[in-house]
Amino acid sequence: MWKNVFTPNKDIAKPLYTGAGIATFILLLLFWSILSYGGFVNPLFLPAPDKIVKSAVTMFQSGEIWTDIGISFSRVALGFILAAVIGVPLGMLMGSLRVMQGAFEPIIGFIRYMPASAFIPLLILWIGLGEGEKMAVIFLGTFFQLTLMVMDVTKNIQNELIEVSYTLGAKSFQLFKRVILPASLPGIVDTLRITFGWAWTYLVVAELVGASDGLGFMIMQASRFLKPDKIIVGILIIGVLGLIMDLIFKAIYRASFSWMRKEGS
Amino acid sequence: MTTTPKLVIDNVGKVFSTKSGQVVALDRTSFSVEEGEFVTILGPSGCGKSTILRVVAGLEEPSSGHVYLDGKEIKGPGPDRGMVFQSYTLYPWLSVKDNITFGLDLKGVPKKQQDEIAFHYLDLIGLKGFDKHYPIQLSGGMKQRVAIARALANDPQILLMDEPFGALDAQTRTIMQEILLKVWEESKKTILFITHDVEESIFLGDSIYVMTARPGRLKKNIKVPLPRPRDYQNKHSEDFLALKLELLDLIREESLKAVNP
Ligand SMILES: Nc1ncnc2c1ncn2[C@@H]1O[C@H](COP(=O)(O)OP(=O)(O)O)[C@@H](O)[C@H]1O
Ligand SMILES: [Mg+2]
Question: Residues in domain ABC transporter (chain B) (predicted)?
Answer without folding.
Answer: 7-238
